[in-house]
Amino acid sequence: MKVLSEERTRALFEKLTKYIGVNVKLLIDRPDGTYCFREKKDRVYYISERLLQLAQTVKPDHLISAGTCFGKFTKTNKFRLHITALTYIAPYAPYKIWVKPSAEQQFLYGNHVIKSGLGRITENTPKHQGVVINTMSDIPIGFGVTARSTTECRHADPLATIAFHQADIGEYIRSEDTLV
Amino acid sequence: MDIVNEILEKEQKKAEKYKPITVEKHLELEFDIGTLLASDTNDLDIKSLKSDSQRDSYLNTLARDNTQLLLNKIWELPTERIDEAIVVKLPQPKTVLPRSKPVPKPKPLTKWQEFAKAKGITKNKKDKVKWDEQLQKWVPLYGFRKAVAEKEKQWLIEVPQHLDPMVDMFEKKAMEKSEKVAKNELQRLKNIARAKKVNIPRVGLPVTSDKANAAQLSTAAIVAKASTASLGKFQDKLPKEKEARGKGVHELIPGKDRKRKAPIPTPQAEKQNNLNLIDKILNKRPKIDMEKAVSKHIHEEQIQRSEEKKTMKPLKGKRKTKGGNATNFSAKKPKAGKGQRNPNKKNPGRKRR
């Protein structure tokens, strides 16, 4: 478990601010204990200080993961969020998209959200904004990036892409072996 | 007789000085004359070993006796006399001694040897000579008289159709050969460097050929730019110059990417650092997003228009109910059969102009 370097921390926070904006502070500044980000084999884990100290007693070779995996750094040093981060992103996300029950399955199979499947969208969502995608019953099922702003959505044709798929909970099954 | 006695006494005194050459032992010693080794398997006298006063003398006598036995054994061997010195030829040693130096390590494999091993390619030895049908004789494949045979065989080379007819094919061939030799030499040096685990730069000399590709040129440019005392830190940039990917020039310099491990910060310090970093990221001056501005403007316009429509609608209705003098702004010519007839009017029918 390594401490993230300055540039990697920056990349991580920049990515997180795309989805949850100023709420990133809440991930660090928690009343219930200190939480931090640690890196292991290019994967970033969000872990409480208490748990980290327990994890440090394990020999590094034997430790596979500790805490919650937020994502990984690619070989070109870009940060990619994983679906496992959804539990921390979903409650803080200011911009959301709700998909109709008929389009849920399509999204969970890794497809983009199209206009016909769009149930609701947060007012004033800009273009290329990280959004959390919910079902109509407010259960988060993934996240993505908007392809159109809210105003543009109104005039889009039914097959136009509204949000690009980035991660969905179907990945827990589809890419079980590569997630952690 | 006095003289004889005197001499005898003297001899006796002399003999008292020296100990006898015969030594008695319970068990015979084991000898390995080849290494001048005698090993005594007899028990030691523990009593004299433990007492401080006797220990040294005991060990001394023991050593002398054993040495005497060893020398006796040597004297049993056939002696020679070379230049007034008595010499003995020792037999072959029987004891196996451990080697003084470690077993030499196997030679590291070259890159090709490694590859061949992984692929299971075995070397099959070629003959030194080969029968040449054209020359009707045995021709060496390498080494002595190979070049002569080659010259004899290829006294003429055809210039291919697609090449410039003025090309000297012999010169071209020699050039290719010398390049091959140079490449082989470079690979040999690389193999040595690899075996000794020496870091060598990924790029060597700057490209001189005019046919360098884009990647080679860009690396050359990066290297050239970083070839200042400050590693190119204060060098001017071109307006659209690409940054070197990854670590830039540092990955081309061997031993440059050794990093010192940063100390692990305390939880409080780490938290503070993270919060500061987040503040920095959040307080970045927003760029003017033209697209966003335009879409916002469009959105406002749309809202305005829709509100206008809402307020306009009732007006239109009033006009219709009133009938008559609504101003028609259309520039088209009025058509027949469109308007409603009003029989109360003076002149019924379409207005004619």
UniProtKB/TrEMBL annotation, chain A:
One of its GO terms (biological process) is ribosome assembly. GO terms for molecular function: RNA binding. It is found in: Nucleus, Nucleolus. It comes from the Eukaryota. InterPro entries: NIP7_N, Nip7_N_euk, PUA, PUA-like_sf, PUA_sf, Ribosomal_synth_fac_NIP7, UPF0113_PUA. Keywords: Nucleus, Ribosome biogenesis, RNA-binding. Gene3D superfamilies: 3.10.450.220, PUA domain. Belongs to the NIP7 family. This is 60S ribosome subunit biogenesis protein NIP7 homolog. It comes from Euphydryas editha.
Automatic annotation (TrEMBL), chain B:
Pfam families: RRS1. The keyword Kinase does not apply. Residues 312-322, 332-353 have a biased composition (Basic residues). Its main location: nucleus. The keyword Nucleus applies. Signal peptide: none annotated. It is found in: Nucleus. Residues 239-256, 286-311 have a biased composition (Basic and acidic residues). GO terms for cellular component: nucleolus; preribosome, large subunit precursor. Residues 239-273, 286-353 are annotated as: Disordered. Belongs to the RRS1 family. This is Ribosome biogenesis regulatory protein. It comes from Euphydryas editha. The lineage of its organism: Eukaryota, Metazoa, Ecdysozoa, Arthropoda, Hexapoda.
